[in-house]
Amino acid sequence: EVVTSGVSLIHKIPVDGPVVLLKAGGVQQHLTPWHPVFIWVGDNIREVPAGKVSVGDLLAVPCSRLLDLGGGISREAAYLAGLFTGDGTIYKSPHKYVALYNTNLELVDRAKGYADAVGLTGAHFRGGQTYGSSGTIRKRGRSKGCWGKKEQYILMLGVRAWELLTDMGIPQGKKSYSCNVPEKIVKSGTSVVFAFLGGLLDSDGSVFKSNGWGRRGGYGWSVAWSSVNKELVRKISFLLQLHGIPSVFNHGKHQRYDKYTAQVFGKRNIEKLGELIGTHSMKLSQMLSIESSHPRNDGNVLRIKDVQFRRVTETREEEFHGSFYDFTTEL
Fold first, then answer.
1. Structure confidence by residue, pLDDT tens digits, 203-227
2. CB under 8 Å to 268, separation ≥6 — which residues?
């Protein structure tokens, strides 16, 4: 049974010698060789020293990957941040909750899968007129858009999602003209930046694929991020160009509003974009026929309650001179 407990003592332990680096599913940990860890063997959990873990073992890691163990923002959290930057609302209510609005139930369900993966669902919360568990998907009725009225779906998440998104710097309340790519995302590395752009593409972007030259710019294939926020789109265009993907910045009119677009043309450029975003965009994965799924259990991940067992991909010893910190819990 998985239990949680508060920390009662913190021990500073001097280490002067080899430590073990364990990598499992994008998570990495530096541990002393004798530090106990848990692996899944057959149908049971077994406690072993970190130095005895081998490549291929299923290693227990926390489900709540808001931050990866290397100290940066995880790609799952970055994807959610991109979605909420486009189609979400961070409410100023003292109850602290967030909501994602979209007419595509598949996308909303995908967002719930990502929220499950980083431990944002399950806790009860109260916010506005809603009461239930974080991760609830509700139907809002019909939303009037440019293609007529469609059913709209809402994913509600509680205080942990609120804290995650506000800590990243995503504005509360109306944010159409104030949001931008968070600096914490930009500083977290290429994979995190493009996971964020993948989420933003799924919420506020579009893809177009044609075997011929097509009608959009005469290139056949195009991917575009659009917004009324000029600075946000300029930042997207800059990040694309910075990573070697040519993009075009456009300004036009949509009804009575200014509309800005960062657009990538051409099959070769979009395939390169797909390599950087990976499966962290439903629209781009469908365009490129990449197998894309929610971050749920597969042969390399086993989830039991609040713990994931991830397949170990690398183990090695490294010299370390400094201090580690150990925690004593109340249990």
1. 989 998 765 554 444 457 899 999 9
2. none
